[in-house]
């Protein structure tokens, strides 16, 4: 076996790909509670105090996560969210607190670094980082389509112009800033699970020939020590919450929201490519309308020409997607965009 690694490899006990991994034993047990579980995961969720972030936190909390840090700017919102989940009849029985609040502004890199340092000192690794924080930005949206003169259209398009920079900082730039800041802790999660550290180059070899490259190696005995299944080969994971607005050509919230979310989705895909040799996965969730602070006031009943499913997304919809992505059953999902919108982008002009 030849392995090219540039950073602190300890391969003495690493197990290479065994012949059994090239066959599927279709008679092996298939257990949804193993495949779609957050058991033992250390998770960070930005914007975790409300809406979709809190719904994802609840799904992972109820399904075995060992620690979930909720990050946001309002400490009281984070603390209330934790109290609510802990007091719920669905809360797991645990004497060790699972949920933690960290005040953090994702648009401020010093604030992000402080959160990283705190998590580093408390736990030392992060299995899953969820870039969920977001704002709606300047609202020029549907009103643009009601204008009667070119001057009105001009003014409508320029509405909230000076709010674009902050919207970009929170919705887009933070995807890079937060992901980059957490990389050492994501790598530490890989090492904890027995993966070799550092950059693993896929060659040498002819890239057109499949099945002969240099994979990252995993010491399976580490999994056993941690109490994880032997077939658990999940790599550390970044999940970015973009939007169906990333693809819509009809601007409902505002042009800044569309632009920042299109860019966030693209960055989530780029991260998967940048991090391919570094043992970190990246996927993107693109929700349609869900109840949250951001969508407060929306009635939530949609015609078939708006959301074919006829309703907003609900807790089942987002929880099952989150558990799929973070669970063992999602280990092979990397570089994807997962749309959860009841069919919305199929009935609007859209680019997806
Ligand atoms: N709900 C939908 O229909 C929908 C659809 C598509 C995509 N999304 C996306 O889903 C994500 C969650 O939004 P939501 O709908 O759940 O709305 P939400 O309830 O308003 O949640 C947004 C969260 O982000 C946090 N946040 C905002 N700016 C932040 C900053 N600078 N630093 C740290 N945290 C920040 C907010 O907390 P603080 O204000 O306390 O910081 C809040 O908890 C967003 O990225 C949104 O664009 C939502």
TrEMBL record:
UniProtKB keywords: Membrane, NADP, Oxidoreductase, Transmembrane, Transmembrane helix
Signal peptide: none
Keyword Oxidoreductase: yes
Coiled coil regions, renumbered to chain: none
Any one GO molecular function term: oxidoreductase activity
Record family assignment: Belongs to the short-chain dehydrogenases/reductases (SDR) family.
Record protein name field: NAD(P)-binding protein
């Amino acid at each position: 076996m030849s392995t090219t690694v540039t950073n602190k490899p300890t391969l003495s006990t690493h197990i290479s790909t065994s012949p059994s991994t090239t066959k599927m034993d279709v008679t092996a047990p298939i257990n949804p509670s193993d495949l779609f579980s957050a058991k033992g995961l250390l998770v960070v969720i930005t914007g975790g105090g409300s809406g979709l972030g809190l719904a994802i936190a609840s799904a992972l909390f109820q399904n075995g996560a060992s620690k979930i840090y909720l990050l946001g700017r309002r400490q009281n919102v984070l603390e209330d969210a934790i109290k609510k989940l802990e007091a719920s009849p669905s809360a797991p029985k645990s004497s060790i607190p699972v949920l933690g609040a960290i005040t953090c502004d994702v648009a401020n890199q010093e604030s992000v670094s402080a959160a990283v340092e705190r998590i580093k000192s408390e736990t030392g690794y992060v299995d899953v980082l969820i870039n969920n924080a977001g704002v709606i930005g300047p609202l020029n949206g549907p009103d643009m389509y009601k204008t009667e003169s070119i001057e009105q259209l001009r003014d409508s398009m320029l509405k909230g112009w000076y709010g674009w920079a902050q919207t970009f900082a929170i919705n887009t730039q933070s995807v890079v800033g937060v992901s980059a800041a957490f990389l050492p802790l994501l790598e530490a999660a890989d090492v904890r699970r027995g993966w070799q550290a550092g950059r693993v180059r896929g060659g040498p070899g002819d890239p057109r020939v499949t099945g002969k490259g240099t994979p990252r190696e995993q010491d399976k005995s580490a999994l056993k020590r941690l109490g994880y299944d032997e077939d658990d080969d999940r790599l550390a994971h970044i999940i970015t919450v973009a939007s169906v607005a990333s693809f819509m050509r009809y601007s409902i919230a505002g042009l800044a929201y569309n632009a920042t979310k299109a860019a966030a989705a693209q960055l989530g895909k780029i991260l998967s490519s940048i991090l391919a040799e570094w043992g970190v996965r990246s996927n993107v969730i693109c929700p349609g309308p869900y109840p949250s602070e951001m969508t407060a006031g929306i009635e939530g009943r949609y015609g078939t020409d708006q959301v074919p499913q006829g309703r907003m997304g609900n807790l089942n919809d987002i929880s099952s997607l989150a558990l799929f992505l973070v669970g063992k059953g999602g280990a092979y999902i990397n570089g994807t965009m997962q749309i959860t919108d009841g069919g919305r982008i199929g009935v609007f002009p859209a680019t997806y």
